[in-house]
Amino acid sequence: MKKDIRKTQPRIRTIGEINLPEPEKYILDNGIPVYLIDAGTQELVRIELIFDAGSYYQSKALQAYLTNKCLSEGTESYSSKTIAETIDFYGAYLKSSNEKDTANISLYTLNKHLDKLLPVLHEVSLIPTFPEEEIRTIVRKQHQEYLVNMEKVSFIARQQFSSLLFGEGHPYGKIAMADDYGKVNSTVLRQFFKERYQSAQFTIIISGKVPGDIIERLNRYFGKHVVKKKSDLTSAPIPKPATDLNQFIKKDGTLQSALRLGKTMFNKLHPDYTKFKVLNTVLGGYFGSRLMTNIREDKGYTYGIGSGIASFKHAGMFFIASEVGTEVTKKAIDEVFIEIERLRTTLVPREELELVKNYMTGQFLRRADGPFALAELVRAILPYKLDMNYYKHYIRTIKNITAEEICNLAVNYLQPDSMIRLVVGEDVPVHQ
Amino acid sequence: MIKFEKFTLINGLRVIVHKDVSTPIVAMNILYDVGARDEDPEKTGFAHLFEHLMFGGSENIPKYDVPLERAGGENNAFTSNDVTNYYLTLPKQNLETAFWLESDRMNQLAFSEKSLEVQRNVVSEEFRQTHLNQPYGDVWLLMRPLAYQVHPYSWPTIGKKIEHITDATMDDVKAFYKKNYNPNNAILVVAGDIELTDIKKLAEKWFGPIENQGEKNRQIPVEPIQTESRFLEVEGDVPVDAIYKCWHMCSRNDEAYHATDLLSDLLGNGKSSRLYYELITNRKLFSEIQAFIMGSMDKGLFVVSGKPANGVNLNEAEEAINVEIDKIRNLLIDEKELQKVKNKVESTLEFSEMNVLDKAMNLAFAELSGDAGNVNTEATKYQAVSSKRILETAAEVLRPENCSTLFYKAKNK
Question: B35: burial class by Cβ within 10 Å (0-12, 13-18, 19+)?
Answer without folding.
Answer: buried
